[in-house]
């Protein structure tokens, strides 16, 4: 269902009328295309406090003011820029309220000049439980980031990355500073240091344009919607994809698989032996497991029969628990592997009529947080989740008009996301360079007003 309001506000009379009436002014977001793979313009590096990250002194004597390859593996400049495409503020050294003022001093003069669809990324440090002043001001960066995200406008996004090791954060920064993260705003991502032995032994040399080369990815519910976009994006990034969907959708799954040079697997993910059957279909192992299949059976609790409760819990949560356990225990998920599950903002904020769905999606958050450290320590596999907000798919096209329109606009970017936005986020989490990203729940919601 096309977003006609977005098209209307894209015209001169539409813009004039909606501005006069004080209505939302969504900007057309710049997303990744092969022709325009990156944001055009400088990436400005600013610092608040005394940072130990050493972002400006890497790169064989390079001069960062001339645009140096920094310790992040990205080109950043400290030279003034008239219209930067992105601003990275290193605030890892902010330890007290006085140095917190440097965050204001650094960003206040430049924020207006950031280009449309540009990026602001704040780098923070993990909260130090032994220093409540440091913890207070590092937590302050979260409120700062989320507030700036709500006011910055023009398709620009603001995110916070808490990191300890600049190298481990390279894939995350690359994603957040690119058009691939168009619908990710107001997020806080923690990046730890990647354990040294978590690269898969079978990995071919790293190709930044096709980071998943040589890897096998299985996407559940990939015959249509978000899952189809995830399969497409992982294939674009070099993965061999397995398109799993229910037997009734086998034809569509095959069509997607054929287009992507992958294979289809007709299987109801709630089958008790689903894990064994996936393992049997993948004798050479699996690197990326994307739990995308999901259903809604909305009713208020007072009107909800047990069957609506159990079917949603079974597809959205129980099957995810069962198959993840089976594929980790059988060793089908190899070292260096990735699990990306699908939560929802309904699981974080709650939604009337969705006690079943909200419970199932909150369950995904619990699963991710508890399993992530153990899966990494015992199997060398990271476990993360994406939490989509309002995404334009058949699922949301079925929502009644007025509720749908409200769902679309109630976020900082004043529009719905596209399946590709969830897919790009999944691809970043699946990247072999993302070993330091573990146990994270990343919302792809344009900074929805629902939930934090
Ligand atoms: P969709 O209904 O368009 O597609 C879901 C796919 O999953 C379908 O192809 C379906 O056949 C498959 N599927 C359902 N049950 C299955 C089972 N038992 N075994 C195997 N496959 C099964 O949905 P979508 O909008 O693309 O959503 C994808 C995921 O994103 C879901 O987990 C959903 O809860 C989540 N999500 C979507 C939105 C949104 O706005 N669309 C928002 C938040 C979360």
CATH topology of the largest domain: Rossmann fold
Q: What amount of the residues lies in strands?
A: 15-25%
- Per CATH, the superfamily of the largest domain is NAD(P)-binding Rossmann-like Domain
Q: What is the average of the pLDDT values?
A: 92
Rounded to the nearest angstrom, the distance between the terminal CA atoms is: 28 Å
Give the second-level CATH assignment, the architecture of the largest domain.
3-Layer(aba) Sandwich
- Top-tier CATH class of the largest domain: Alpha Beta
Helix content: 25-40%
Broad shape: globular
Unreliable residue runs: 58-64
List the helices and strands and how they pair.
Elements: H1 4-9, H2 12-20, E1 43-49, E2 68-69, E3 75-76, E4 86-93, H3 97-107, E5 119-124, H4 132-151, E6 157-163, H5 170-176, E7 188-191, E8 216-220, H6 225-236, E9 240-245, H7 250-260, E10 263-266, H8 274-281, E11 286-291, H9 306-329, E12 333-342, H10 345-349, H11 355-379, E13 382-388, H12 394-397, H13 401-409, H14 419-430, E14 441-444
Parallel strand pairs: 1-4, 4-5, 5-6, 6-7, 8-9, 8-11, 9-10, 11-12, 12-13, 13-14
Antiparallel strand pairs: 2-3
Q: Outline of this structure?
A:
By secondary structure, this protein is of the alpha/beta class. It has helices at residues 4-9, 12-20, 97-107, 132-151, 170-176, 225-236, 250-260, 274-281, 306-329, 345-349, 355-379, 394-397, 401-409, 419-430; strands at residues 43-49, 68-69, 75-76, 86-93, 119-124, 157-163, 188-191, 216-220, 240-245, 263-266, 286-291, 333-342, 382-388, 441-444. The protein folds into two domains: 31-191, Rossmann fold (3-Layer(aba) Sandwich); 216-444, 3-Layer(aba) Sandwich (Rossmann fold), CATH 3.40.50.
